[in-house]
Amino acid sequence: MKRFFGLIILLVIAAVCGVWFMLNQKGTSDYSIPIPGKASTLTKVTGLAGSEKMELFADKEIMEILERKENLDIDVKKAGSVEMVRMTPRAQDFLWPANRVNLEYYQETHSDVMRSADIFNSPIVLYSWDIVTDALIKNAIVQQRDSIYYVIDLPKLLELITAKKTWKDIGLEQLYGKIMIRSTDPAKSNSGNMFAALIANTLNKGEMVTQESIKEVLPRLNTFFARLGHMEHSSSVLFNMFLQQGAGAYPIIVGYENQLLEFANAHEETLPLLTSKVRILYPFPTVWASHPFIALSKKGVKLMEALKNEKIYELAWKKHGFRSGLSGGKSDPSVFKIPGIPKEINGVMQTPSASVMNMITESLLPLSGIK
Fold this sequence. Notes:
The protein is 45% helix and 16% strand. The protein is of the alpha/beta class. The protein folds into two domains: 166 residues, D-Maltodextrin-Binding Protein, domain 2; 188 residues, D-Maltodextrin-Binding Protein, domain 2. 44% of the residues are buried. About 2% of the residues have low confidence. It comes from Desulfamplus magnetovallimortis. This is Extracellular solute-binding protein.
């Protein structure tokens, strides 16, 4: 009976994910958010944002604040964080990628940055399933502390992947194939790019890679990512595939902390499955993915300042899982019905410099089919 109930819940979440995925895929990279009831006196602001922030722009409460209080009409299109800072610039008022490395790269290669500011922050996490997490705990790779799951031995997990060990080798008879972590394309998507930074540092014995040490690490890093096969271009696409296809196809994926929190808030009917089956694993240490807003015009600056609204910070956390980094308990995990969310992220590894990250990205371009 329990298995039947679990199957029903899984079918429900698959259906919800499918609808959510199709809505989020409208227009692919030209996905725009129409805002109802726009007045002709509103100032139109156009820009690009990473897929992880598109639901923010679809949030009626947030859009009403920007409309009514700031008189802004936002026309935003989805683009990969790494892609948007590397593409030929078009007429945009702003870019909103994830991670300061992308900001630094854009500043080094373009001269049109008027102002910038970090608006939100998200730690890079791994998403997995109950049976996979239990096997990783038995193999001393994951540890549970106060209901929070931490990846305490990432080097050991990487060794298992490098040695081409199977799930069966670590006692997980239910899953077929080799142990693998699925990631987005690091040459297009920031979550994959930040994961590459985390892996590079881990391969460098836990030390941040530099221009000197990266040369030794790159061959092993390329080998690791080459084994992943097809990599999705978008964090939201990968996360939806994870939820839709389950542990058999996606045992472990890389993502942002906010993705599960946002999905659970929007689809409370899936909570029974999410709380019983899905696990958030926090690498210890992990890396932060900041969300720097890059203003390219005066209109872009106006939107950037408008986003620093206390109410928007509050809504961004409660409804979308974005941490503001402000004091005063703005990141209280008790507002969520999802367990295992730490109030603070303490185990953090420094991200390599923009020049080193560029070397990493350039070395991984052939895996993306980009020359």
